[in-house]
C-alpha cells in the first residue's frame, strides 16, 4: 500500500509530519505493508513550508494511478481573510503584514497548480482514499470536488468549508468512505492512527499508539446509525 503525502508551497509542517510518521511507523509494524512518501503536483523538488520557511523534499510526483492513499495538508500562515486591514501597533512595521501569508491565500494558490486535477483523478478511482488534515480539506472543496460530501477542517474554517457545499462536521476525524478528513493541526496524529486501523487493522494501530505514547482522541464521525436527539 502506497501513501503519498502532498507538499505545496506554504504547507503546514505538522500537518505533513504527524501523519507521515504515523503511517511510516505503521509500515514498519506491518512488515512493509504500507509505504509513505512525500510528493508534489510538480514532481521531485524542494518545497518550502509556511512555518519559518522550512523546506522538505518531495521525492516523487503525486500519481493517482500509483497511490492507494493521498494525504493533503493545510497551510501555515496568518489567520484572516484576503483584503482585510489588520490592526497594527503604533510601532509596527506595515510591511510585516503580507496578504500572501494569509492561510486562505496560500490554500487558494493550489487551485492554480496541477493539484486539483490530480485530486480529481484520485477521487475518480474508487480504490484510492483521499485524506486531509486541517485546512487541507479546503483544497478539494474550493476546487468543487467535495460538494455534498461530509468533511471537517480546522474549527475556524468550518464556515468556509460549508460555503463550498460540503456538509461540514465538527469532529476530530470524519470518515466519508473514500474521503477521510481531520480537524485541527494535531489531528494529523489521530487521522493517521485511524487510517492504520481502517487499512491495516487495530493491532497495527495499537502498536503505533504504544510506540508514540499517544492515544487517539475522539470518535471518528461517520454518516451511519440513528441521528442523536438533542441533549
Give a description of the structure.
- The chain is of the alpha/beta class and 231 residues long.
- 30% of the residues lie in helices and 19% in strands.
- It is built from 7 helices and 12 strands.
- The chain has helices at residues 13-29, 103-109, 115-123, 138-142, 158-163, 187-200, 202-212; strands at residues 2-7, 35-40, 45-48, 55-58, 60-61, 69-72, 129-132, 150-151, 167-168, 173-175, 179-182, 221-222.
- Strands 5-2-1-6-7-11-10-12 form an 8-stranded mixed β-sheet, with helices on both faces.
- β10 (173-175) and β11 (179-182) form a beta hairpin.
- α6 (187-200) packs antiparallel against α7.
- The longest helix has 17 residues, at 13-29.
- It is globular and about 40 Å long.
- Pfam families: DJ-1_PfpI.
- Residues 119-197 form the DJ-1/PfpI domain.
- This is DJ-1/PfpI family protein.
- InterPro entries: Class_I_gatase-like, DJ-1/PfpI, INH-QAR.
Largest sheet: 8 strands, mixed
Helix and strand pattern: EHEEEEEHHEHEHEEEHHE
Radius of gyration: 18 Å
Overall geometry comes to globular
Helical fraction? 25-40%
Task: Characterize this entry briefly.
The protein is of the alpha/beta class and 231 residues long. The chain has seven helices and twelve strands.
Q: Key terms for this structure?
A:
231 residues, alpha/beta, eight-stranded mixed beta sheet, 7 helices, DJ-1/PfpI family protein, INH-QAR
Amino acid at each position: 500500500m502506497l501513501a503519498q503525502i502532498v507538499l505545496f508551497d506554504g504547507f503546514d509542517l505538522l500537518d505533513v509530519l504527524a501523519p507521515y510518521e504515523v503511517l511510516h511507523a505503521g509500515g514498519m509494524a506491518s512488515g512493509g505493508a504500507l509505504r509513505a512518501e512525500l510528493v508534489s503536483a510538480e514532481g521531485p523538488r524542494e518545497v518550502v513550508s509556511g512555518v519559518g520557511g522550512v523546506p522538505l523534499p518531495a521525492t516523487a510526483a503525486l500519481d493517482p494511478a500509483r497511490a492507494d492513499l493521498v494525504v493533503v495538508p493545510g497551510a501555515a500562515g496568518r489567520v484572516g481573510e484576503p483584503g482585510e486591514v489588520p490592526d497594527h501597533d503604533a510601532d509596527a512595521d506595515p510591511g510585516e503584514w503580507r496578504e500572501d501569508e494569509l492561510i486562505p491565500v496560500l490554500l487558494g494558490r493550489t487551485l492554480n497548480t496541477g493539484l486539483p486535477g490530480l485530486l480529481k483523478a484520485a477521487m475518480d478511482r474508487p480504490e484510492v482514499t483521499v485524506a486531509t488534515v486541517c485546512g487541507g480539506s479546503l483544497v478539494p472543496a474550493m476546487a468543487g470536488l467535495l460538494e455534498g460530501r461530509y468533511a471537517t477542517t480546522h474549527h475556524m474554517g468550518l464556515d468556509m468549508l460549508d460555503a463550498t457545499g460540503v456538509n461540514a462536521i465538527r469532529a476530530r476525524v470524519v470518515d466519508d468512505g473514500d474521503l477521510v478528513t481531520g480537524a485541527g493541526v494535531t489531528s494529523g496524529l489521530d487521522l493517521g492512527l485511524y487510517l492504520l486501523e481502517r487499512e491495516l487493522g487495530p493491532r497495527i494501530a495499537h502498536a503505533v499508539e504504544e510506540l508514540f505514547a499517544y492515544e487517539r482522541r475522539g470518535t471518528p464521525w461517520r454518516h451511519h446509525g440513528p441521528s442523536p436527539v438533542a441533549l
